[in-house]
Specification:
Layout: H1 21-30, E1 33-37, E2 44-48, H2 51-59, E3 64-65, H3 77-83, H4 94-103, H5 108-132, E4 134-136, H6 137-142, H7 144-154, H8 161-172, H9 183-206, H10 212-217, H11 229-260, H12 262-270, H13 275-285, E5 291-296, E6 300-302, E7 305-307, E8 312-316, H14 318-321, H15 339-345, H16 359-376, E9 377-382, E10 387-388, E11 397-399, E12 401-406
Parallel strand pairs: 2-8
Antiparallel strand pairs: 1-2, 3-5, 4-12, 5-8, 6-7, 9-12, 10-11
Helix pairs in contact: 5-7, 5-16, 7-11, 8-9, 8-11, 9-11, 11-12, 11-13, 11-16, 13-15, 13-16
């Protein structure tokens, strides 16, 4: 067993400025798997670095289960038993049955129908920022856009917007004292989102309206059963968490990288066809989810190591994204990379049965906002050092003070 002799990779001090990518590059070059200690029940976890090994772990739920959850932390038993009814914690075939019901809501026709409203929202947010000439980009644009898109889709009343955002931040950024005072309260926030989702489902049944919530509640699963309010609540918790945090972090990083690379921003303004490459490049270069955990279901040999039943396998999603075997000049931000090749080789959205449910919605969010931003905004500037969220799971800013000018 190879034990890290230095401070563990998944350490809050290492992540003060986001993912320590230079160190990650060193570890990937030296290891297939690396055992490092932690303070949880098993006493440690395996870091998985290589593309083929990450794919093997994520595609083999028979050997690497999702039922203990996707994060390094061990959930309290009373919380875990409730979470295990949610898709993120399911293994096939139960997972597939639930996912099939929800995928219908993200079909291409539905995405196309949403796009005009999404562009209107993007321009409304840009109007407000351009009128002032400056803003705090994370909270006023990067978070607002996916939040309002998702709320429109799900039929969330405007009066509940702030509550859902606050609970989402508490659940996903529970290691940051600015969002929650105790790590255990993050687990409570997850349960609160489930309960809110169940309440939203019940409200839709009493007051029917046009939304994805209504659509999902009215569709039978492959087992012929309708989704219950609490089942919808669990789905809501996963969808809102993934839909808000991932797009927020990616949009904020996009602004930051275009400020650092003004020549590439101007190229995208001149040639809108580069937006597709820009979306894939920011997803490659600044993947917002650091890792996904799976838990070994039995003792076995893998990548030259003995894996024990219960061992945590931590798939570092950003590792293949910067692998020189997969990308030329991987530490260079370059929106001219072939977007199809990039899409095939990055693992930003995971892989296997739990491949990101809202991936098409997320990509549409990014394409729409970057297209509108390039049309409307000149001279994007970062005014102060970004503030990072305290997390080893989500990589993103919690504050980005910026300035921008209307495009002539």
């Amino acid at each position: 067993m190879d034990t890290a002799t230095t401070r563990p990779f998944l350490d809050f001090e290492r992540f003060e400025k986001g993912t320590p990518r230079e160190y990650l590059n060193e570890l990937r070059a030296a290891h297939r798997l690396l055992w490092e200690r932690d303070d949880f029940a098993t006493g440690g976890h395996w870091l998985v670095f290589q593309l083929a090994d990450i794919d093997e772990v994520l595609k083999r739920p028979d050997l690497y289960s999702s039922t203990e959850g996707p994060i390094l932390d061990d959930f309290p038993p009373e919380v875990l038993v409730l979470q295990q009814e949610a898709m993120t914690f399911m293994d096939p075939p139960q997972h597939r049955q639930t996912r099939a019901l929800v995928e219908y809501a993200f079909r291409p026709q539905a995405l196309k129908a949403r796009e005009p409203r999404m562009r209107a929202l993007a321009n409304e947010l840009l109007d407000a920022a351009l009128d002032k000439g400056h803003c705090e980009f994370v909270g006023q644009v990067a978070m607002q856009f996916p939040m309002r898109v998702m709320y429109d889709i799900l039929g969330v009343p405007e009066a509940d917007y702030d509550y859902v955002v606050e609970r989402t931040n508490a659940a996903l950024l529970a290691d940051d004292p600015e969002f929650v005072t105790d790590r255990q309260l993050g687990f409570v926030a997850s349960l609160d989102l489930m309960r809110y989702g169940a309440k939203l489902a019940a409200d839709h049944r009493s007051n029917p309206r046009d939304s994805m919530t209504m659509e999902v509640l009215g569709t039978k699963g492959v087992d012929g059963e309708m989704m219950s309010d609490m089942e919808f609540g669990r789905f809501f918790m996963q969808l809102i968490s993934g839909g808000l945090e991932t797009t927020r972090n990616t949009l904020a990083y996009a602004f930051y990288e275009f400020w650092r690379h003004p020549d590439q921003y101007k190229a995208m303004q001149t040639d809108p066809a580069l937006v597709a490459g820009a979306v894939e490049e920011i997803l490659r270069f600044r993947n917002p989810v650091v890792y996904l955990r799976r838990t070994a279901t039995m003792d076995h040999e893998f990548a030259g190591e003995h894996i024990r039943k219960g061992d945590k396998m931590i798939c570092l999603l950003g590792s293949p994204n910067r692998d020189p075997e997969l990308f030329d000049n991987p530490d260079t931000f370059d929106i001219r990379r072939n977007p199809l090749t990039t899409r095939q080789r990055i693992r930003t959205f995971g892989l296997g049965p739990h491949y990101c449910l809202g991936i098409h919605q997320a990509r549409l969010n990014l394409n729409v906002m970057l297209e509108e931003f390039a049309k409307r905004v000149d001279n994007p500037q970062v005014l102060a050092e970004p503030r990072y969220a305290r997390s080893i799971f989500m990589d993103g800013f919690k504050e980005l003070q910026v300035a921008m000018e209307p495009r002539a």
